[in-house]
């Protein structure tokens, strides 16, 4: 897939893997990147990124990714200014770790907080799926305007979606909500891959390992040092740029489908 003159939307773009992906895409001469984040940091991140890239390619949007109105507004503005969106990396996510069941001091069984579980599902599962489907819609509508029906290979790929899964999708102690959402993205990816190719849009998923991002830095350093790094073949955290490079590979290479594991050789015990 040729990236120059394409339009992208990336959520969670103020930091971590998503920010690194924005910069990598910017270097590929894409036309514009809608950078979405709930934090005010998105404005400074885009300003700094545009200086680094030497052009105004990063367009900031601040808002809640689980909001339908906000999502539709971002896409409407991007389409109006730049045309249909061809690339979507819905990377925004949260972690709310806790054991699924534990006993309190009285011996009562305490279950994982249901409100938190629903919040993680909203941000990590429903939101990325709908940001992806919205992107497919922009391509489909553009093709309809040009009286194009089913996509044909001679047209070349029209768009690409890369979901951000996780090594936790196979199960990880203390992450019942996070793991469930990341595993759920696999089903969404496989389904959208079958449906969206009608419009020439590919859909894949990448499963990063523990990466040096604000999310991981918020973890107990002792836990990282004693329980994570020794189980990783590289014996270090991944760098966001390494994961972003893998994402760019999946976007560029139309033959790459399904899932890519970027886990640095992490193999946890049962």
Brief write-up:
The chain has eight helices and nine strands.
Describe this structure in words.
The chain is an alpha/beta fold and 270 residues long. The protein has a single domain (7-262), classed as NAD(P)-binding Rossmann-like Domain (Rossmann fold, 3-Layer(aba) Sandwich). The chain contains eight helices and nine strands. It has a seven-stranded parallel sheet with strand order 3-2-1-4-7-8-9, with helices on both faces. Strands 5-6 form a two-stranded antiparallel sheet. α1 (16-27) packs across α8 and α4 (114-145) packs parallel to α5. The longest helix is centred in the middle third of the chain and has 32 residues, at 114-145. It is globular, with a radius of gyration of 19 Å. The relative contact order is 0.14.
Annotate the secondary structure layout.
Blueprint: E1 7-11, H1 16-27, E2 32-37, H2 41-53, E3 58-62, H3 68-82, E4 87-90, E5 101-103, E6 109-111, H4 114-145, E7 159-164, H5 176-196, E8 201-208, H6 214-217, H7 221-228, H8 240-252, E9 258-262
Parallel strand pairs: 1-2, 1-4, 2-3, 4-7, 7-8, 8-9
Antiparallel strand pairs: 5-6
What is the alpha-carbon Rg in Å? Answer: 19 Å
Distance between the termini: 40 Å
Low-confidence blocks of residues: none
Return the structural class: alpha/beta
Helical content (DSSP H or I, runs of 4+): 40-55%
Nearest-integer average pLDDT: 94
Shape: globular
CATH architecture: 3-Layer(aba) Sandwich
CATH topology: Rossmann fold
CATH superfamily: NAD(P)-binding Rossmann-like Domain
What is the H/E string? EHEHEHEEEHEHEHHHE
The main sheet comes to: 7 strands, parallel
């Amino acid at each position: 897939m040729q990236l120059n003159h394409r339009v992208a939307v990336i959520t969670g773009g103020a930091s971590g893997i998503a920010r690194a992906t924005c910069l990598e895409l910017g270097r590929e001469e894409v036309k514009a990147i809608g950078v979405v984040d709930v934090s005010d940091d998105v404005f400074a991140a885009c300003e700094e990124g545009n200086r680094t890239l030497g052009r105004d390619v990063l367009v900031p949007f601040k808002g809640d990714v689980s909001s339908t109105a906000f999502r539709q507004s971002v896409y409407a503005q991007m389409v109006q200014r730049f045309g249909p969106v061809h690339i979507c990396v819905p990377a925004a996510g949260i972690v709310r770790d806790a054991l699924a069941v534990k006993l309190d001091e009285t011996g009562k069984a305490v279950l994982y907080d249901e409100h938190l579980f629903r919040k993680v599902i909203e941000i990590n599962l429903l939101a990325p799926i709908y940001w992806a489907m919205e992107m497919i819609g922009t391509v489909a509508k553009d093709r309809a305007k040009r009286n194009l029906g089913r996509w044909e290979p001679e047209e070349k790929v029209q768009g690409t979606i890369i979901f951000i899964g996780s090594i936790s999708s196979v199960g990880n102690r203390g992450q019942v909500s996070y793991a469930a959402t990341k595993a759920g993205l696999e089903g969404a990816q496989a389904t959208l891959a079958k449906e969206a190719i009608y419009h020439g849009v590919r859909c894949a998923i990448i499963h990063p390992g523990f990466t040096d991002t604000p999310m991981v830095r918020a973890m107990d350093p002792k836990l990282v040092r004693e329980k994570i790094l020794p189980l990783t073949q590289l014996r270090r955290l991944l760098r966001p740029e390494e994961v972003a490079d893998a994402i760019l590979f999946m976007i560029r290479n139309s033959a790459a489908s399904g899932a890519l594991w970027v886990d640095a050789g992490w193999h946890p015990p049962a």
